[in-house]
């Protein structure tokens, strides 16, 4: 069964890095503030993203993806 990750791509890199990967929406907000993402945590939950879907803000793109691995 695939696992879900959230890919954050910042429009303006922070410390030279623009791509970040998280196991949950909560994990995103443990690293970034609402102001850095451009949307509240609840907003992302309300989007009910499916794998492959993305949500764009003024500051980043949030994309939900599946990760496949061997057991």
Summarize the structure.
The protein is an alpha+beta fold and 71 residues long. It is built from three helices and four strands, in the order E-E-H-H-H-E-E. The N and C termini lie close together (9 Å).
Number of helices: 3
Oligomeric status of the shown chains? single chain
Strand order of the largest sheet: 2-1-4-3
C-alpha geometry: globular
Class by helix and strand content?
alpha+beta
Determine Rg (CA atoms, Å): 12 Å
Helix and strand string, N-terminal first?
EEHHHEE
What proportion strand? 35-45%
- How far apart, in Å, are the first and last alpha carbons? 9 Å
Low-confidence stretches: none
Overall residue-averaged pLDDT value: 95
Total of domains: 1
Approximate helicity band: 25-40%
Tell how many strands the DSSP assignment holds. 4
Q: How can the largest sheet be summarized?
A: 4 strands, antiparallel
């Amino acid at each position: 069964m695939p696992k879900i990750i959230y890919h954050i791509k910042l429009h303006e890199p922070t410390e030279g890095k623009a791509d970040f990967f998280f196991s949950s929406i909560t994990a995103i907000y443990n690293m970034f503030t609402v102001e850095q993402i451009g949307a509240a945590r609840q907003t992302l939950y309300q989007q009910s993203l499916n794998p492959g879907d993305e949500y764009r803000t003024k500051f980043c793109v949030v994309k939900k993806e599946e990760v496949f691995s061997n057991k």
